[in-house]
What does this fold into?
Amino acid sequence: MRSIAGDVIRQAFSQCEEGKLHKRLYIAISESILTGNLNPSARMPPTRDLAEELELSRNTVLRVYEQLQAEGYISTHRGNGTFVTHSVLDNLDARPLLSAEEAPAEDRSLLSDRCLELLQHASASPRQWGAFLPGVPDVVSFPHRVMKKIHDRQARQPLPEHLTYDSTGGAHVLKAALTDYLRTARGVRCSPDQILITEGIHQALDLVTRSLCNPGDTAWTEEPGYWGIKNILRINGVGILPMPVDEQGLIPAATSGTAPKLMFVTPSHQYPLGSVMSLSRRQLLLSLARDSGSWIIEDDYDSEFRFSGQPIPSLQGLEENSPVIYIGTFSKTLYPALRLGYVVLPKAISAPLKKMHSELYRGGHLQMQAALAEFIREGYYAAHIRKMRQLYGRRRQVLVSLITHYLGNDYSGQHNSNAGLHLILQLPVESDDVNIALDANNAGLLVRPLSRYFVGKATTRGLLLGFAHMDEKEIESAFVRLLAIIRSSAGPH
It folds into this structure.
């Protein structure tokens, strides 16, 4: 019977053309094990099957197996078969001399200019779980068993349309469920045919930028603002015009010259500073966009987690047929690896952008989308958000109390609103927040420096501290370690 291990050995044996048959077979198997093509615990093919496949005598194969077992490459378990041993890589004396060439050195001259520019500004952390990592929810508290039951129930008789390619912008049941949720929870005005399901915020931003901008167009971004937006603009050849942020959100400029094609804003909870865009500022932005033919991109990334007062309604819902493209995600409310987000498109561009999405990305995960739709319709989604809002509120208060107790009120962020999954630990302007963050990262504390969120010269220094995925005891112990790093730096004493 053919096996994967047999195919690996056959290929290696065919490439070893010199020497006697038993020597060739020995080299083929031992090198396959030592190079990782046959992994520890992999089942070896029976001697009879391997002899037949390689057109060798069974005695030849038995002889090689006995030699390999004596040297520790393989071991036989009576009644179960023969397996590659776990400790084989410790047997360095038996390792054949290999003439493998060294891996080629990294050569960035092979890359495009736009790729090089993006790599220069790449900011995604190589570690995506750990103390104070911003933007990560408590993935352990998600009701995984409930979702599994829903998914298993639907998987027993899946609809054929949920198992093939998608060209309609996502499962209709999820778009319908989202329409009801967004209308009641966020004040968004839309119908199901205006919703497009994406694989998160980045795909949504890339789609909108590719579809609405030409190379050389410009876009407003918040200063400081989310690095992911800027990298997508760079890769698409769109100029970045950073606009300052104050306690009322982005400060729009009069568009006497060329108007920006896009205006990126996080009005309900500015990222990263935390301010809320005022009603007058929202109305001004809408007026400017309508008069100049620009599009406002509203990133509503964690608006569900406001810990006091009433939820902040969406900018999109302020006007009927507003020039706003509303983007949301399940990465913050559920968990990032789900890779599901959504875009509410104005009716005038809904159909072409859905077709663009289909051509560029080939949407999928329809079975999971259907399960998520039931999760929302049955009330589990709203209940989970209520539970997490209380939990995150307590954890945020623990961190705020620690900052105030050990450092004082001056170290609370300027615009920190009582919301979101992170807060700003403000540092004196002369502090080197990049080096402090580097020292903290090396100590396993995954803070981010505020100055890195500026396109131009940073006007303030600080650290972004995520708290949502940390329990209260972990927050306190990690903060004490961070405090020691801050005090030992050139920053506050």
Summary: Residues 197 and 206 are 14 Å apart (CA to CA). The two ends are 72 Å apart (CA to CA).
